[in-house]
Amino acid sequence: MTEPPRRAEPEAGREPEERPAPVKGRELRWRIWQQLPLLVALVVLWMLLWGQISWLSLVSGVLVALLVVRLFFLPPVELSGRFNPFWFVVFLGRFVADLVVASFQVAFQALRPRGVTGNAVVAVDLVTRSDLVMTLTSIVISIIPGSIVVEVDRQDSVLYLHGLNVRSAEEAQRLRAKVLSVERSLVRSLGSRQDMERTAR
C-alpha cells in the first residue's frame, strides 16, 4: 500500500514562498484607467505620424498602443481624480497669449541686427511630484517659443531648460518664475489637492 505524498516542508530559516495575490476586478479596472492617458497619447501620436484621421489609423493605433504597453514596462500615469473646467479655460487662454507674445519676441530677436546675444541652460525645481503635471509642464514650455526642455530629472522633479537671450541671473530667475507659473496653472486645472497646497505656499 503506497503512502500519500508528503507536503514539502520549508527549509529551516527559510520562509515559505507566498503566491502573488490575484488581481481583482476593481484593481484591474484602476490599472486600465491609469494607463488610459498613455494609450490615448500613443494613438494620437500614431495618427499624427500617418498624417491622417481615419478608422484604419485609429484601429491600428489602438493595436500598436496596446502592444507597446504590453511589451515595454512603462510607469502608470497617476491621475489626480479632479478637473476644474474654469481654471482649464484660464490656462488655455493664457497659453495662447504666451504663445503669440513669445512668437513675436523670438522673431524680433532673430531679425534685429545684433541677433540673440546670450543663451543659458536653467534648472527649475518644480513644486509638485506628479509625473503628469511635470510632463504637461515640459510640453507647454517646449511649445512656447524661446525655451525648450533639454533634460528632465524625474526623481527630484527638476527641469533643465535652454533659454534664448538669457544673459543674467535676473533673466534666469524670470524664466524659472514663468515655468512655475505654468505648473501652478496646470495644478489648478487638474492637479491633486496635495499639489494645490504645495503650489499655494
Main β-sheet, in a few words? 3 strands, antiparallel
- Strand tally is 3
Question: How would you classify the helix and strand content by structural class?
Answer: mainly alpha
**Helix and strand pattern:** HHHEHEEHH
- In round numbers, the mean pLDDT is 79
Spatial extent as radius of gyration: 24 Å
Strand content: 5-15%
Number of helical regions: 6
Low-confidence stretches at least 5 residues in length (pLDDT < 50)?
none
What is the strand and helix layout of this fold?
Blueprint: H1 25-50, H2 55-71, H3 85-111, E1 119-125, H4 131-143, E2 147-153, E3 158-164, H5 169-190, H6 193-199
Antiparallel strand pairs: 1-3, 2-3
What does this structure look like?
- With 201 residues, the protein is mainly α.
- The chain has 2 domains: 1-77, no CATH class; 85-199, no CATH class.
- It contains 6 helices and 3 strands; from the N terminus they run αααβαββαα.
- A 3-stranded antiparallel beta sheet has the order 1-3-2, with helices on one face.
- Strand 2 (147-153) and strand 3 form a beta hairpin.
- Helix 1 crosses helix 2 (55-71) and helix 4 crosses helix 5 (169-190).
- The model has no long low-confidence stretch (mean pLDDT 79).
